[in-house]
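Entry for iron/sulfur cluster complex. Fields follow.
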Amino acid sequence: MKEQEKNLTLSSELNHPGRVFDIQRFSLHDGPGIRTIVFLKGCPLSCLWCSNPEGISYQRELMYFPNKCIGCQTCVNTCPKTALTFKKGTIRIERNKCDHCGQCAEACPSEALRISGKDLSVEEVIKEVEKDLVFYQVSGGGITISGGEPMNQPEFVISLLLAAKKAGINTALETCGYANTETFLQVLAQVDYLLYDIKHMYPQKHRKFTGKDNKIILENLKQAVKTVSCLTVRVPLIPGFNDSSEEVMEIASFVSSLSITSLDILPYHRLGLSKYRSLGKLSGMDRIKPLERSRAEELKYKIEEKYLLKVRVGG
Ligand code: SF4
Ligand code: SF4
């Protein structure tokens, strides 16, 4: 976690560009009210079930969506690296040749090719976010910074939060909590609403399925409750990883011990699988079925019976 170990001096003078892979308007599930979500590239974890695999690497990546391809081969003729060929009705990408220049994506008439990852200034992002000011005002919404892991780009995040605050926009942060504590607390000072993922209480299992230990994540949550007054813990409920009653109740016990009152359970879905294919990657969850909503509801009632937690089952 080299980036996270940096002790940053953050100030309103900073204006770093950020590497963004998506900006989604009109979200209703990532903080209060109507929100615009800014997705940043790069994450220190590599959760097997990640539904945004294009957010894991900080590098720009070429994505190919065969269902949109009309077979015109414009891209093949455009690529200066001869990284593309057209065989059996589909484009083949030699990814070791591709330098992510984006020329093929620009030339493609049907948006079947896309570069994930664009470097944007704070002003550019705020300009996009401000388009929905009126909706934030009527709904209590605002900007939500997500990823990937936003704390992977702390300089940009703090600049963006400060700019949002200056524009009178409510701020929310979605994080896995794997970050340098001092930097994290500096960022949290500008956050109105925190969405904090907890995946497992056992360090070894956490490491096996996400690539990293959970010690700093649990510690940072303890610190976060002292800084942010509006906080929801979110638990992705993953078959074979953390969906036993025992594992979920251990998370609930920890969360409740910190006097947090809001917990979201997010049942595993398969919506991200096609994105792995578009990146030329394999998903570790190909054969795992989505989690039944009834199982998530069952766990919700168990938690609410035992702890002073308001549990919401996400879609
Ligand atoms: S991004 Fe550039 S190098 Fe990569 S396949 Fe497209 S045109 Fe070729
Ligand atoms: S330019 Fe686009 S539509 Fe045409 S072959 Fe390439 S990916 Fe397919």
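NOTE: The first helix runs from residue 2 to 5.
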